[in-house]
Amino acid sequence: MTAYPLIILLAVLLSAFLYHRSQPAQPKSRIWLLAILRGITLSILLLFIFSPIIRYIQNKVQRQQVILLTDTSRSMHNDGKAAWMKDKAKTLEERYKKAGYKVIKHPFASGLEGSAEDTQLAPALKELASRYDLSRVQSLLLFSDGWLRDEDLSIVRQLGVPLSPIADSSSTLQMDLAVENLRNNRHGYRGEPNLFRATISSKNYSGPATVTLKSKGGTLATRTIQLSADDSQEVEFTHRFPTLGFHPLRVEVSAPNL
Fold it and tell me: What is the pLDDT of residues 56-112, one digit of tens each?
């Protein structure tokens, strides 16, 4: 803002200098009056010409800002979403910093300081607007899984800041049935019974399932069990190996229509 008074002062001094050297000589009162009038005219003209340039320079001097808003609610801790978002946020933060932006980072759940049990974006945006001059914010990056519980998000338009959601594009595979582990003695005797325990888990399936103990030579034993969703069950097998040597083992689980 100091550039504007300097322009006015320069215009006044230039006008006074021109009338001071004017020929023929004129009364001082007339010189001062004409100098002031010309000074005002030159000031208006110079301000009109240089104001856009001054504003452009001032805007360049002030570093533009980018806000990174990261969802920290409980839903983000499922399926590795939080880790994926953290890596993505770090990458974008480094890029913006290299480009000369000032990066502001904030977590949010139910507002900036709210409970992780809820996810509400509107209170977080209102708090940001009260803390920062958003006219300097180039963009607001939202790292969230999208499980927002806001009834009204009209504040997004009111802020006047571009909001860029960063979605989790990764995919996860959840098994309906899975063999969690297989336990057995590392050493066995030929012809002696050997015990094997397999833990079978069910995520989204309820009903009968077939568990099979297999070796390189084929199927060794089979069990039929009844499973419930989000439950696990331990299945035991007993087998006698007729020969010496190493016997690679595996357990498979299957169910109708899966």
Answer: 666 655 668 899 998 888 777 766 777 888 888 899 999 999 988 899 998 888 778
From 197, 206, 203, 240, select the one nearest 225 (Cα to Cα).
206
Among 3.30.950.10, 2.40.10.410, 3.50.50.60, 3.40.50.410, name the CATH number for the domain at 65-166. Answer: 3.40.50.410
Return the C-alpha torsion angle 209, 213, 215, 221, nearest 10.
-110
The architecture of the domain spanning 177-254 is: Sandwich (2.60)
Give domain limits for the chain: 3-61, 65-166, 177-254
Strand order in the sheet with 218-227: 218-227, 207-215, 249-254
State whether residue 230 is helix, strand or coil.
coil
Alpha-carbon span 74 to 147, nearest angstrom: 10
Structure tokens belonging to residue 82: 């939080």
Q: Give dist(CA 197, CA 234) in Å, integer.
A: 7
Which helix (H) or strand (E) is 98 found in, with range?
helix 81-98
Share of the chain above pLDDT 90, in %: 13
